[in-house]
Design a protein that fits this description.
With 378 residues, this protein is mostly helical. Helix content is 40%, strand content 3%.
């Protein structure tokens, strides 16, 4: 397999104040370096960050998103690593490319995995390749493992994992104790996850192709759709629209979308993934199933997509419901579809009988309840 792209070069020769120098490795995410620095100095990650930033509980937030100047100054002084290296190890440069500007201060960043923080506990968002950790001289977590479109390891041709193979707990390296030998240890069951890589699932072909296409767009600063160059922010919105269309095929029981699924050979089981969850909150298996089908639609010429939608009697409202951004590249496709808009009628309020909730709504409620129970039991 080809070697994956390096998102930051790391830092080599440094002059720290600490007793032992801890360089940032190539493509390492900043939270991984903080954990490794703490274990190398012989203390807990919480103790190290408490000393660096008194009164600031870093691990209740997403430490990888961005670090302001007031947070970087003590880090640069103690580590001896240049400020630019730390900035390149955060997710902020990638998010700026995706948004075409400064990403929002709060909320989930598009295409960046959400950790689901509750105090110092996590619901997920940290994934890794067990084969990479097993072959590393010094195990560490990569920056690209936080990207939502990454579900496979291009180097080893296997699927990534986001849960401990032994206890099924999410990866939380910041909760490791000072006696942990390295970062490749589960903070919940204390097992060495590097030894659990045997039998890891093979990468899904379509998901891996979509991953490569999105990585190439990030490197080139532009995407390609229907043989046209597209600005990167708009291209990422196009990919999101396609993934959302696939999910609607599995949820909405409309006649047009059902015909579309049949015409395009869309497996509705792949489309019915994590009802109510955003792409950034899905598990690896759900994202792989979703991207496997999304790639087929993305790779289809616009003219073929338009003809298939028209022949399947998909309406404008089914293709792009109200509140969803329509990519400009798909405007000709949208205009060719029939309009099924109905005039709004003002209905008189009446006390209607309580009707059963739709199945996808019940599934969404159950997923939220399971998440809360899982966090409460850990």
């Amino acid at each position: 397999m080809a070697t994956s792209h390096s998102w930051n070069t790391g830092a080599g020769r440094i002059a720290p104040r600490w007793a032992v120098a801890v360089p940032i490795l190539p493509n390492e995410i900043v939270s991984s370096w903080l954990v490794r620095a703490a274990l190398t100095q012989g203390c807990d990650p919480l103790a190290l960050t408490g000393k660096l930033w008194p009164g600031w509980r870093l691990w209740t937030l997403d430490a990888d998103r961005r670090l302001g100047p007031e947070r970087l100054d003590p880090l640069v002084q103690c580590s001896g690593i240049e400020r630019a290296v730390f900035l390149a190890s955060t997710l902020d440069p990638v998010a700026r490319q995706i948004y075409g500007g400064i990403p929002p201060e709060c909320g989930v960043w598009q295409w960046i995995l959400a950790l689901g923080s509750r105090n110092t506990k996590r619901r997920g968002g940290m994934q890794c390749c067990l084969a990479c950790l097993n072959t590393d001289k010094t195990p560490y977590f990569r920056k690209n493992w936080r990207f939502a479109w990454h579900t496979c390891c291009e180097k080893h041709g296997c699927s990534l994992v986001d849960r401990c193979p032994s206890c099924d707990a999410p990866f939380e390296p910041h909760r490791l104790r000072a006696d942990a030998p390295h970062i490749g240890v589960c903070a919940t069951c204390h097992s060495d996850i590097r030894n659990k890589g045997v039998g890891t699932a093979t990468a899904a072909t379509g998901a891996l192709r979509l991953q490569r296409a999105m990585d190439k767009a990030m490197r080139d600063g532009k995407g390609i759709y229907n043989q046209e160059n597209v600005e990167l922010p708009e291209w990422f919105r196009l990919m999101r629209f396609m993934a959302t269309l696939v999910r609607r095929v599995g949820v909405v029981q409309g006649r047009g979308l059902a015909s579309l699924a049949s015409a395009m050979s869309i497996d509705c089981r792949n489309a019915q993934v994590a009802p109510g969850a955003s792409v950034e909150s899905m598990s690896i298996s759900d994202r792989q199933r979703l991207f496997e089908t999304t790639w087929d639609i993305v790779n289809m010429p616009a003219a073929s997509l338009r003809n298939t939608l028209v022949e399947s009697n998909v309406t404008k409202q089914a293709f792009c419901p109200k509140g969803i951004h329509l990519p400009p590249l798909l405007s000709p496709v949208y205009e060719a579809l029939p309009n099924n808009a109905k005039p709004r009628r003002r209905k008189r309020r009446k006390q209607a009988a309580r009707m059963p909730r739709p199945p996808h709504v019940v599934q969404r409620m159950m997923i939220r309840i399971r998440r809360k129970l899982e966090m409460a039991c850990r």
